[in-house]
Amino acid sequence: MNLKKLMVLTAACSMAMSITACGSNNNAGGNAAATNAPADNAAATDNAGAGSDNAPAAGEIVPEEGASLVIWESKEERQFAEEVAKQFTAKYNVPVKIEEVAPPDQVGKLTQDGPSGLAADVIIIPHDNLGKAASASLLLPNDIFAEQTKAENTEASIVGSSYDGELYGYPRAAETYALFYNKSLVKEAPKSFDDVIAFSKTFTDKAKNRYGIMWEVGNMYFNYPFIATTGGYLFGKDGTDKDDIGLNNEGAIKGLTEFAKLKEVLPIKSGDINPDIKRSLFNSGDVAMDITGPWELAGYKEALGDNLGIAPVPTIDGKTAITFSGIKIFTVNAYTQYPNAAKLYAHFASGKDSQLTLNKLVGSVPTNLEALKDPQITGDEFVSAFAEQAKNSQPMPSIPEMGNVWSPVNAALPAIWDNNTDPKAAMDKAVEQIKDLNNGASAQ
């Protein structure tokens, strides 16, 4: 597939070269006083905050008088949100409340709670959810800070933060996944999945709950290499053609056949693998290798110390593995009562210093160009490893129909893994379900 291939490859390589060279889920805390119409894009006013010692610089927008914000953030990265909120409040005198909502769930929650005024003012979402939210008019464009955002961040992150030619997001981190391995168990990172199988045959012992490798085998996000590496794809025409689906073509089936072979060395049901189980086993040395993303980096470094290694995902059928890449972005709720304050927060929380803070706390990969050149990043071998994998990644499509892909494929993968369903039959069924959903019909 040519999924934004030329543009994304250039952007990913540019990012990699820069690195290596240089509360609860309830709605009670929402701004319920917000009107039931989207906020307008009013020009900046001379309201609250201008009189404080930390007043905004000339030319910056000023928060509305009496503004307060609610921010949705993941449980894993709440520490970052609380630190940034503290800094923002000190500078702009705007109180900020943090509520825990998983990023993949935020657009759905915004769809339900935005019009009623119960949603957060600023949300953090994976970029593949952008099309759904933007096409439903749930987000305000990144207009005031658009040129600054474009100038300060990688091209790939700007692509991921845009939909239908409009910039909506404030990029804060780039994500793909790679192979984590325990150097005390694996002397050299495997180059191929054949190498993974060979090692795992010497290490795996199901009776002792010990495995050579573990990853979320039922999750399409982590298994995209077994679709794309050998020629499969999601949507045609650079990820924009909902009617051209390549999940069951010859290339995809070839890769998924290789996927099924790995059951021999990971002989457990897909439902028995989740992030908590996998994390615990890897930290204890009972899993030697894990395919996951930078959000696990801080914890794994603490657990394994110098024994932690990261390498590109092993080759599949002799071909360099192609992973999914994504951009995590801040976006502003179109129904916010305080659009100035919300845009200012999204800009502040996605700047160089904030991205370096996020990297320090959770091991994220920045999108800010200056942050990428900072010694904190250039001196980090692990961030560089993710940059290497980013050279061979494809961004998730951001069209609204992307939301129709997950459930069917996440049902097909366990069928292949758990029930030995023929990969072609499983993916044919998934594609038909996706087409039905894309066309507005109920999947059969």
From TrEMBL:
Pfam families linked to this entry: SBP_bac_8
Matching CDD domains: PBP2_Maltose_binding_like
Residues annotated as signal peptide: 1-23
Subcellular location: Cell membrane
Major location category of this protein: membrane
The entry's keywords: Cell membrane, Lipoprotein, Membrane, Signal, Sugar transport, Transport
Highest taxon above the source species: Bacteria
InterPro entries: Maltose/Cyclodextrin-bd, SBP
Membrane topology listed for this record: Lipid-anchor
Family (UniProt): Belongs to the bacterial solute-binding protein 1 family.
Protein name (record): Maltodextrin-binding protein
Annotated source species: Paenibacillus silagei
